[in-house]
């Protein structure tokens, strides 16, 4: 399954373009622009499963760096500052990784 089967391709493209500059990525804005924040909990869990590249049940920092590339192969890698900010925003239990429930809560808020 691909992200474009869940989210409109033009919305993904617009969201990627809006954060092309280093340190311009804002997770909540990105989720709104690509349409993820309006999706059902089931669709958000499907997106999480795609983003969880190693299938561990968590998105770790190394996977998070390549977050934008999961949406579009030509997208840039997140900077260390963006990656840490994203992790801090989503990692409610401070275990250094984002679980499905944490991701759901961040996207839906």
Mind sketching the topology for me?
Blueprint: H1 9-18, H2 27-34, H3 41-51, E1 58-60, H4 61-65, H5 67-71, H6 80-90, E2 97-99, H7 100-108
Antiparallel strand pairs: 1-2
Helix pairs in contact: 1-2, 3-7
Binding site for Ca(2+) 2: 91, 93, 95, 102
Protein name: Parvalbumin
Function: In muscle, parvalbumin is thought to be involved in relaxation after contraction. It binds two calcium ions.
Q: Specify the CATH architecture.
A: Orthogonal Bundle
What is the C-level CATH assignment? Mainly Alpha
Counted beta strands: 2
Listing every helix as H and every strand as E from the N terminus to the C terminus, the arrangement reads HHHEHHHEH
Structural class: mainly alpha
Model regions low in confidence, pLDDT < 50 over at least 5 residues = none
The biggest beta sheet, please?
Answer: 2 strands, antiparallel
Oligomeric description of these chains:
single chain
How widely separated are the two ends?
Answer: 25 Å
Taken as a percent bin, the fraction of beta residues is 5-15%
CATH topology: Recoverin, domain 1
Domain unit count: 1
State the CATH superfamily name: EF-hand
The helix tally amounts to 7
Shape: globular
Helix content: 40-55%
What spatial order of strands do you see in the largest sheet?
Answer: 1-2
């Amino acid at each position: 399954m691909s992200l474009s089967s869940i989210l409109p391709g033009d919305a993904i493209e617009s969201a990627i373009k809006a954060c092309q500059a280093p340190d311009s990525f804002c997770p909540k804005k990105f989720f709104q622009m690509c349409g993820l924040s309006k999706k059902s909990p089931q669709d958000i869990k499907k997106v999480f499963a795609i983003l969880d590249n190693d299938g561990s049940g968590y998105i770790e920092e190394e996977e998070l760096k390549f977050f934008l590339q999961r949406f579009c192969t030509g997208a840039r890698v997140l900077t260390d500052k963006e990656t840490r900010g994203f992790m801090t925003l989503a990692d409610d239990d401070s275990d250094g990784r984002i679980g499905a429930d944490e991701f759901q809560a961040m996207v839906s808020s």
